Amino acid sequence: MKSTLETLAIDGGEKTVQTTFPWPIYDENEVQAVAEVIRSGRWANPDCGEAVAAFEQEFAAYCGTKYAVSCVNGSVSLRLALMACGVKPGDEVIVPPYTFIATASTVLEVNCVPVFVDIDPETYNLDPKAIEAAITERTKVIIPVHFAGLACNMDAIMDIAHRHNLKVIEDAAHAHGAEYKGRKLGSIGDAGSFSFQSSKNLTSGEGGIVVTNDENLYRMMASLRNVGRMEGGQWYDHFNPGCNYRITQMQAVLLSQQLKRLEEQTVLRNNNGLYLNELLADIDGITPLSRGDGEIRHCYHLYIFKYDSSAFGPLSRSEFVARLSAEGVPCSTGYPHPLYTQPVFQNRNFMCYAIPESVDYTSVHCPIAERACRDEAVWIFQHAMLGSREDMRAFAEAIRKIQRVVSQS
Ligand SMILES: *Cc1c(COP(=O)(O)O)cnc(C)c1O
């Protein structure tokens, strides 16, 4: 009777999902655009090339902001925004612990103190009530991360910032094209930072950009990105402590081509995410994250659900994810640790003397982030969310298959 039982792909059975999900997506337009720059010999910005400025204008227009400053990656873009906000050594910056290290490590790089505030269990985004409770007289900036491409509660965050006279830098590295109440993420705070690293929803392999409506922030970030030069100044006149953080013309034309695809891809991921939410709704032990309050457009840099092993055998989360991957769903267990448990924080390897001795990350605990890291979160990657509705049904079926097999054994 053994042959009538299902066999998981991890044990040699047939994969549930037959499709593969390419990333990045490009065609001859991208190849042509880069080739033309190469043949022109105008590879650099500034001084010989307009493609970088053209892309900045296109991206700012897409986000609905006045200005955009491109740079080498989405960590430097955070750093430029922090420096331009005028932070002083020892100032506190509120960040979530469940995010990529750059959200917090760039705070250290500008000699400031990252203050970790726990996430909301339903959305994995910063919890506004916890933000308010963490504010001290040294707090200068809040960095909300629109985690996975899901908008933070920006009304509440901007209200807190206004009442306490704080700057808001949106870390929108996951959130190209996503929206909050009809506005593009990144355009709501004082500045919005994006990454174009290879895994991100808009990519040129590496790269970053900051958008803003604030002319002073813009001028400072543009100067810092360009070795402290000022617009209209001389080549060897340096006014601010910046660096060469410029991107190339090849990156800029590639991004201009990729940007043409972004809106359609974002709508597709959002629709697939809504559909997958429906498909997973009645599977025991699987709880998709909530899409939060207000009208949002999710761009699903990650599709995240919470996993409860007691409904699966119990298979540990890593055993479950290994089986789901083998069935053909591109997925992972995500971050293994909340940021404050990383050695850089635990051992105070700050390379900076402005962080008070009293700052002790060994006593920080954010229980929701710890649970997400330890055994709860499962991530499906953005390129898989560009599949068809049939692919979404196959993802749900792969999960059901694992559940059937483990409950039979
Ligand atoms: C990717 C990422 C960054 C940094 O971007 P890089 O381009 O890799 O430097 C910052 N914040 C978050 C949340 C990210 O995921």
From TrEMBL:
Gene Ontology biological process terms in this record: polysaccharide biosynthetic process
Q: Which InterPro entries match?
A: DegT/StrS_aminotransferase, PyrdxlP-dep_Trfase, PyrdxlP-dep_Trfase_major, PyrdxlP-dep_Trfase_small
Q: Could you tell me the superkingdom of the organism this chain comes from?
A: Bacteria
Which Pfam families does this chain map to? DegT_DnrJ_EryC1
What GO annotations for molecular function exist for this entry?
Answer: pyridoxal phosphate binding; transaminase activity
Residues forming the catalytic site: 200
List keywords of the entry alphabetically.
Aminotransferase, Pyridoxal phosphate, Transferase
Positions bearing N6-(pyridoxal phosphate)lysine: 200
What family classification does the UniProt entry report for this protein? Belongs to the DegT/DnrJ/EryC1 family.
Q: What is this protein called?
A: DegT/DnrJ/EryC1/StrS family aminotransferase
